[in-house]
Design brief:
This protein is of the alpha+beta class. Helix content is about 30%, strand content about 25%. It has helices at about 5-15, 90-95, 140-160, 230-240, 270-290, 320-325, 330-340, 365-380, 400-405, 410, 420-435; strands at about 25, 25-35, 65-70, 75-80, 110-115, 165-175, 180, 190-200, 205-210, 245-250, 255-260, 295-305, 345-350, 355-360, 360-365, 385, 395.
Length: about 450
């Protein structure tokens, strides 16, 4: 029996710690992998149909996936962040198939994409994509294998590097850093949440950072691989903090949130993205320094299955999303049931006073804030965040009134006007189950 397990057992015997308590002395391990596809794969960039599946013309800055594995000696959980547009529904299961013999299952892995629009085309790594339409991306078996293999090795590598840790989180509002892109006076989630993880020796180990905004400084005209402003954020913070620290960015309910360019940024799209990420990285470092740390912390997770509404396209789809992505109603009749799942899930994680609620798509900020408030109440977490684009991309997720109002986001929402309500209810049912494990 390991030392901290023996300690927990003794406390139970003498009645100091109630049965079922979730305080734990955690260990964690980190790893990273370069996801930038080699030139021989002719990998396309995702995010804009106008690119017509054209391969990237080079590398502006490299893209990475990073993993942190937590364990209390009884259970384990892998949180993976990636400089990617999103994950097609089959991808996570393919990764898990390579990890099953190592004890990894769907419940104890969460994948989180930054949503970079200068990264791997999502449908180029989707084996369900058999339609050969350039605007949505054309499936590449070689690129798929490259991606799946890297993610599987990443998690296994992190699991081999476990060290005892201390952890703490903080949140603050950053006014003027993002805005609602559907409505100038619309709802904005401007909360920055930082989770500091140090070794027991006091060395910086990992930092989780959540901020809600599309990485869309680059347009369809920028044709080099880049992690966008989240990549610059992570590299800046790692350089400033030093040591072996691993900074991991994950997005929030960014379906209608865009970044606000910072004063003094250069004129090119590349310069604007770098300036934004660098300034946010400096701010992160300053906030990180004052975050208090704890040892025995809550550590629980839960995966909640969600049945989705009937798949269909918005009445305005052919005017917006359909036009951009080269899709007709005839194609959609076959494409939707093949590429969009009938069921999804919300994975949630409690880590000390942080709670992450995973959402499998691009949720509007209004719904995200609703979940954050309810999660704080249900779990007593000081810091509750949305893990956007978690595990798989199912579409944009809007409340009924915003779906009815149309626009681009509504046209790329493929489960009707009730999808937002269904996902919120499912995610909060998962939070309730998570609370029951405490």
């Amino acid at each position: 029996m390991e030392r901290h397990q023996l300690r927990m057992w003794l406390l139970l015997v003498v009645g100091i710690l109630p049965s079922g308590a979730n305080a734990a002395e955690l260990r964690a391990g980190t790893s990273r992998v370069d996801l930038t596809p080699p030139a021989r794969l002719n990998a396309p960039l995702g995010g804009y149909g106008e690119r017509m599946n054209a391969p990237a013309r080079g590398v502006h800055d490299r893209i990475f996936a990073k993993a942190i594995v937590f364990t209390d000696g009884v259970k384990k959980f892998a949180l993976v962040t990636a400089d990617m547009l999103g994950f097609p529904p089959p991808l996570k299961q393919a990764i898990l198939d390579r990890l099953t013999e190592h004890g990894w299952e769907n419940e104890n892995v969460m994948l989180l994409a930054s949503h970079s629009h200068a990264s791997i085309e999502m449908n180029a790594i989707n084996p369900l994509n058999t339609f050969g339409i350039p605007q949505i991306g054309i499936y590449s078996p070689e690129l798929y294998e490259f991606t799946v293999d890297n993610f599987a090795r990443l998690i296994l590598d992190a699991e081999q590097k476990l060290v005892p840790i201390r952890i703490g989180s903080s949140s603050k509002h950053l006014s003027g850093w993002n805005r609602n892109r559907r409505q100038l006076d619309g709802i904005v989630d401007d909360e920055l949440t930082i989770t500091r993880i140090d070794t027991m020796k006091g060395e910086p180990f990992a930092i989780l950072v959540n901020f809600t905004a599309h990485p869309t400084f680059m347009t369809e005209k920028q044709m080099m691989f880049s992690a966008g402003w989240p990549g610059h954020l992570q590299r800046t913070a790692e350089a400033l903090i030093g040591g072996e620290v691993t900074v991991m960015y994950y997005n929030g309910a960014e379906g209608d949130q865009r970044p606000q360019g910072r004063p003094g940024a250069g004129g090119s799209r590349w310069e604007q993205a770098e300036h934004y990420g660098r300034e946010l990285g400096i701010l992160l470092r300053d906030e990180w320094q004052s975050i208090p740390l704890q040892t025995d912390v809550a550590f629980q997770f839960h995966r909640q299955a969600i049945s989705l509404p009937h798949r269909n396209w918005h009445p305005e789809f052919m005017k917006t999303g359909g036009k951009e992505y080269g899709l007709s109603e005839r194609v959609l009749i076959d494409l939707l049931p093949q590429m969009f799942p009938a069921r999804t899930a919300s994975c949630s994680l409690k880590l000390g006073d942080l709670a992450i609620v995973g959402i499998p798509g691009e949720m509007s900020a209004s719904l995200g804030l609703q979940i954050k408030v309810a999660t704080r109440k249900a779990l007593g977490s000081k810091h509750s965040v949305i893990g956007g684009l978690a595990d798989e991309w199912i579409s944009y997720i809007l409340p009924p009134n915003e779906y009815d109002s149309g626009g681009y986001e509504a046209s790329v929402s493929f489960y009707g006007r009730t999808l937002g309500t269904v996902i919120v209810d499912g995610a909060l049912a998962g939070v309730k189950e998570l609370a029951g494990k405490e």
